[in-house]
């Protein structure tokens, strides 16, 4: 019998409750398909930080890097300034393990209420591949008074003057700035992944950028996209400005097959995508390093106000669990979990409030595990 | 009789066709309300650029600065690399005239088909105030090989190492980067405007940011928001991460009254907002400098594939025209244009294809002008 060791970070807020359901369903799948998972719990999150001052240490990360896949609940707590936990744990892990693919399926399941008119499951079935280690997520920035500000504004003026013959004056003495960066390797690897994925699907890759304004960073993105696209003459491609793609996600989701996007825009459009597929309670994601340690999580946050109420929908987490065991090689079990989720939704007997039901988090986990074992 | 001089930049693609309808309706309003507009045409756009090599000169901008309001069609052409016209004309004007407010009403008019289920005009009626001169729109960025790259990566490493005790390695030899900047004055003035606006509405201001990741630039934004909010204790406030707000725009548009947002996020969420209000054909915007030269435009682009076909919806442009004459002090005439638009839509007799009709651009302009004169 196959044996897997999987580290679990339940995290904050509703994290622990939903992770319990995810493990429950994976354990049921193990029973059925003949594998066993040894769950190794990690305490990192808000409470641990408040108690010990530690976010996640390099030692813990090194230890975690011995595993192929981590199961993550959710990170974030109102008691702590925004960004501290997110950057110190979630982004630290994505960067440390070089999980350069953030894979987010946008799939409207049969029986799910879609907030968009006239869209059915056949219209909403695409995948967003979000670059996950670069762009504006690198965390470089700062504040400046006169010195730096004058320099930066000088660059600005020079640039506009040179390009457009203008003389723009700004004399603020206090500024904040942020720097984004993408590299050739970082861009090419996520595009290669996207084109390879499209080859197994509808052979269509849509790129997202804002090359008409953030031309330096996203002009480069476009060039690399064209380079990689040239290796896949059978794949249809298009460029989408990030502002416009928010419209198409609502109006024409059926247009998309694989969407490849820089990190920050990917963050934004996948929340919208989650809504189009029926809500955050149904949206899973995988942070993937194909040759290293990956990490699977629901894309929703820690929803502190629902903590401990056995109220929220565990489906995103259970679905992320299916992605996790697929990564471990248990494809059949993964498919079986997704089809159990689909049956639970179609039967519409055991559902949480967000889907119009009145059951608890654990009821839904139980029901999906039951269906899985029976099917 | 009041006399106004208004510069017009019809621009590219469908720009000239829709601007003709906008002028037609404003002229009708002038007839009815006793004012006269002298339209001064400017040629700037793709054709002019291809013929002369000029985008827009400082002389032209200086000349334009003698006027209170400019009427703009749309800028952008497939024959030219993305960004050249947009930055060289549209953004150059926004920056040159220091039009720090980009005002975008998101209002679902009675009779308009909303793509979101269960939402009616009373649910969709808010205003986005987009900062319009700073953030990632300043156009600072570049590419680097070893030298710069090593420096930047060094900052990155140092930052992550210091903050999180990590050692992140990246060794790309070729990168592209982009810098965003916001200033204290730039942030405060757009927030003051937003709170003043909210005082005349539902007294609720929602701020947009991504302070949990782009903490340097948007942590500063939050602080300034709190500073200005303290002067308005009667105004309800909240913070929204940009990813989450795309969901709320779809799920709970009724929540919003005034939304204040940094430039780039404002670009993204107002396209989504336009979709929620029934489509880009219905979404107007104003680039406003309350003490200088403002500029009004539809928020849609130049749609080159529809150029010269008398096909697209002129309503966004006509509505932008109403905002323009309101800025000139003709509030009654402006209201009358908006109510003529509403009647045209409710009657549903003369409509372009995007609204399910089969009429042309000019038919809709004629119809709105007729209704205006008759009402
Ligand atoms: C919590 C936050 C740092 C994170 C992100 O911005 O990537 C989240 O929004 C996500 O999409 O996974
Ligand atoms: C054309 C483009 C430069 C512009 C922008 O990004 O501001 C447009 O999308 C808008 O929203 O007015």
Automatic annotation (TrEMBL), chains A, B:
This is 3-isopropylmalate dehydrogenase. One of its GO terms (molecular function) is magnesium ion binding. Pfam families: Iso_dh. It comes from the Archaea. Residues 5-368 form the Isopropylmalate dehydrogenase-like domain. Its cofactor is Mg(2+); Mn(2+). The keyword Oxidoreductase applies. The keyword Manganese applies. Keywords: Manganese, Metal-binding, NAD, Oxidoreductase. It comes from Methanococcoides vulcani. PROSITE patterns: IDH_IMDH.
């Amino acid at each position: 019998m196959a044996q897997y060791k999987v580290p679990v970070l339940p995290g904050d807020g509703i994290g622990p409750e939903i992770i319990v359901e995810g493990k429950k369903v994976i354990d049921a799948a193990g029973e059925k398909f003949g594998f066993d998972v040894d769950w190794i719990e990690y305490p990192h999150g808000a409470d641990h930080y408040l108690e010990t001052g530690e976010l996640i240490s390099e030692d813990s990360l090194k230890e975690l890097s011995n595993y192929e896949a981590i199961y993550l609940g959710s990170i974030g707590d109102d008691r702590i300034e925004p960004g501290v936990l997110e950057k110190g744990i979630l982004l630290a892990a994505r960067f440390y393990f070089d999980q350069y693919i953030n894979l987010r399926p946008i799939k409207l399941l049969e029986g799910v209420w879609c907030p968009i008119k006239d869209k059915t499951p056949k219209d909403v079935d695409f995948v967003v591949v979000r670059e996950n280690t670069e762009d504006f997520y690198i965390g470089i920035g700062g504040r400046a008074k006169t010195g730096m500000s004058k320099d930066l504004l000088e660059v600005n003026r020079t640039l506009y003057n040179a390009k457009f013959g203008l003389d723009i004056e700004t004399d603020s003495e206090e500024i904040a700035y942020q720097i984004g960066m993408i590299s050739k390797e970082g861009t090419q690897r996520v595009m290669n992944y996207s084109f390879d994925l499209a080859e197994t699907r509808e052979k269509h890759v849509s790129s997202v950028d804002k090359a008409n304004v953030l031309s330096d960073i996203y002009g480069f993105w476009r060039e690399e996209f064209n380079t990689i696209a040239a290796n896949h003459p059978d794949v249809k491609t298009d460029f989408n400005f990030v502002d416009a793609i928010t419209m198409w996600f609502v109006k024409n989701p059926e247009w998309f097959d694989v969407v490849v996007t820089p990190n920050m825009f990917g963050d934004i459009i996948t929340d919208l995508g989650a809504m189009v597929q029926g809500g955050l309670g149904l949206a899973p994601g995988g942070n993937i390093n194909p040759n290293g340690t990956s990490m699977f999580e629901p894309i929703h946050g820690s929803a502190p106000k629902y903590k401990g109420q056995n109220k929220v929908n565990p489906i995103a987490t259970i679905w992320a669990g299916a992605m996790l065991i697929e990564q471990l090689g248990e494809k059949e079990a993964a498919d079986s979990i997704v089809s159990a989720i689909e049956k639970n939704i179609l039967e519409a007997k055991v559902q949480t409030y967000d889907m119009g039901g009145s059951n608890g988090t654990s009821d839904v986990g139980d029901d999906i595990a039951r269906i899985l074992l029976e099917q």
